[in-house]
Amino acid sequence: MSSDKPYRPNVGIALFNADGRVLIGHRIKDDGPEIVLPGLEWQMPQGGIDAGEDPRQAVMRELWEETGAVNADYLGETDWMTYEFPAYDGPTSHRLAKFRGQRQKWFALRFTGRDEEIDPLTPRNGQPAEFDRWRWERLDRVAGLVVPFRRDVYRAVATRFAEFAG
């Protein structure tokens, strides 16, 4: 990627259940430079921060948009982290093509709702569904389920939020 491109402001969500496992979603398809590789389609929810939006507001909006969940309590957050997108040769008009990668702040949240609340297939706020299914997973296993360009960030998130994992 061209180093003169900016990073996209983004929030990541480690949503912990009562057993200390995190919610992961199975990505439906590639999204421009955000590729999906066979066997590495899982990830925790994440999404862009709108202009002027506070990251704590963005994390709750993204949680709802991507999962339908609204019942969650704040546990903690990371400092800002970055990752680079892999080389992208698709259309320059793609909404992510103008970015070199993501600049993320990750939030740990405790899910206080019921599993039936989680519905990643229903589009919300005009956003298409990103996941076709979900599950609870051990935090220390998630880095092995994501695409390689995200793994360092996921390892750092696992270290930072280990105290919330069961």
UniProtKB/TrEMBL annotation:
Its cofactor is Mg(2+); Mn(2+); a divalent metal cation. Residues 6-159 form the Nudix hydrolase domain. Keywords: Hydrolase. It comes from the Bacteria. Its EC number is 3.6.1.-. InterPro entries: Nudix_hydrolase (IPR020476), NUDIX_hydrolase-like_dom_sf (IPR015797), NUDIX_hydrolase_CS (IPR020084), NUDIX_hydrolase_dom (IPR000086), RppH (IPR022927). A motif (Nudix box) lies at residues 47-68. GO terms for molecular function: hydrolase activity. Accelerates the degradation of transcripts by removing pyrophosphate from the 5'-end of triphosphorylated RNA, leading to a more labile monophosphorylated state that can stimulate subsequent ribonuclease cleavage. Belongs to the Nudix hydrolase family. RppH subfamily. HAMAP family: Nudix_RppH. NCBIfam families: PRK00714.1-5 (NF001938). This is RNA pyrophosphohydrolase. It comes from Bradyrhizobium elkanii.
